[in-house]
Amino acid sequence: MLLRSPTGTAYLPDGGVDQPESRQPRPAAGSLILFLAVFALLQWGWQSARGTWVERLVIDQATVVPAAMLVRTLTPEIAARANGSSIKASGGGLNILNGCEGTEVMFLLIAAFIATRMPWRSRLLALGAGLGWVFLLNQARILTLFYTFRADRSWFDILHTAVLPALLVALTAGYFYVILHALRRRVA
Question: Among 64, 66, 93, 96, which is least packed by CB within 10 angstroms?
C-alpha cells in the first residue's frame, strides 16, 4: 500500500520511498538470439560492401596505411609503403584482404555490447574503447604477420590462420569480460 505525502511523493507505510523497479536481466536465450542477429546483420552489411568504396576505405585507408606507417616507424630501412590493399617493401610485403582487417572481431564486440543490458552511456564508452582496442590488436597482428613473412615464412600460415585470429578473439573477449565485471562492481 502506497501513501502520498502532502507534496505528492509516494512512500511506503514504513517510511521508505518507493523505488522504481530495477530492470531484470534478459533471458540468456534472448541475449543469444539478439547477439547472433546483430552479428549476422553486420556481417551481411560488410559482405554487401565488397568491392565498394567502403571496403577500400576500411582496408586500404584504415588498415593498410596505418600498418605501413608503423612498419616505417619501427624499421625505416625497409621503406614500406601502402599501395592499395598491400604493404609493399623490398624483401617481401603483405596483402590485406577482406577478412584480415579485423571487422569480424569488431562485429562480435558490437553484438556483445548490444545483447548485454547496461546503461547506454557506459555501453557507448566501453564500445568505443573496445573498438580502439580491436584496431590496435589487429595492427599488432598485421605487423607480426609482416615481419614473420619476411623472417621465416614457415611460421606465417599457422600464425595467419590459427594463432593470431584466436588470440585476437580471446583478447577481445577478455576486454568484454573485464568491462562487464567492472560495471557490475560499480553497480553493486
Answer: 66
Joined together, the cell numbers standing for residue 69 give: 606507417
| Grid coordinates belonging to 8 | 505528492
Are 171 and 137 spatial neighbours (Cβ–Cβ below 8 Å)?
yes
Q: What are phi and psi of 140, to 5 degrees?
A: -65, -40
What is the model's pTM? 0.81
DSSP 2: -
Specify the length of the chain in residues: 188
Q: DSSP labels for 74-120?
A: H-GGG--EEETTEEE-TT--EE--TTSSSHHHHHHHHHHHHHS---H
Q: What's at 148, amino acid-wise?
A: T
Considering the chain, what percentage of its residues have pLDDT values greater than 70? 86
- Residue bearing cell 573498438: 131
Q: Which residue has the cell 555501453?
A: 123
Compute how many other C-beta atoms are within 10 angstroms of the C-beta atom of residue 113: 21
**At 61, which helix (H) or strand (E)?**
none
Quick one: cell of 164? Answer: 593470431
What cell does 58 get?
576500411
Contact 165, 134 (CB under 8 A): no
Say if CB 134 and CB 109 are below 8 A apart: yes
Segment 170-183 shows an average pLDDT of 93
